[in-house]
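Fig. S4 source data, part A: sequence.
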Amino acid sequence: MAANITYHKPLFHRRCFANLIDFIIFVLLFGACFLLTRAIVVNMPEYKAKDGELLSLREESGLYFVYSDGNCVDIVSHLKDNSYTPYARWEIAKNTIDRFIVFCDIHGTEGSSEKVQEDYDAYRLDARLTYKDIPMFIKDDEGNIIENPTFSEAATLNERFELAYAPYIDGKCQAFLVTEIPAYLELTHYQSNMLYFAEIAPSYAFGGILAYLLPTFIFRRGRMTFGKALYRIGLVDRRILVPKIGRSLGRFAIFYFFELLLTPFTFGLPFLVSFSLMAFSKSHQGLPDYLLGLNEVDVSNSKIYFDRAEISLDDIPGNKRPVDFHMEKGQ
């Protein structure tokens, strides 16, 4: 007696766990690829040279503290995280701004130092810069801007550092470093481009191909990924056969470039759309499967066939009507 082909939708939680495993595999592969490409990039002679130039500019600007091992941290964080006396912290911060203005005169565009000085003067004389209604800065008899003696007496040295100088260094000076120092902007752009295009992009591509595309050629019967293979979830097309390679590649492209790639930049919208279709639509298909007419099936106790000839070899009628997945209910 001839057997029948009967497929059932896999349980929803099994599909979710299979997708989660695939995503974890992708993240691990992405991380491994990123570490490898990062190690290659940072050891390139050109990258090392530009990184050295950037480190030198940061140190000269006074806005960064460079450690003996070559690592650096912004000066405000360094002053906060290390055991400086309150006086030293206040004095270094105050001198940092003056040092940065001189740095802008050497490395900045024409008029940069004057622009920063004017902004710093306006900042100090801003009526909103007060401590308990006391102006933090005033002009002396000669027109120079100085700390208000009343403010200096009322506030501790730590408060003078935190309220008067640290905000300007962290906010305005860091902004001027990017906008007024062409060499610094060029070097940071170089590092950003290397990060995105030489490290993240290849790592994303290799991680996705290894996690989501390569397994479909290994587990050809059902075009399964590692997670789907673990939970015995296969894929069939409208013919209730193994999807052809073109449709399988199309599924990967839609998932990879629409769902996975756009999700971080669209607050998860593509993922939510696909998940909602899988959870609440009548056919329970994800977005790629819905667009391409594919269905995930439970193959724990069944087999997916490549063609009608293989069905005949298994003594199964080849003219069986395909399963109507719109009517089939998940268990």
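Fig. S4 source data, part B ends here. DSSP finds 13 helices and eight strands in the chain.
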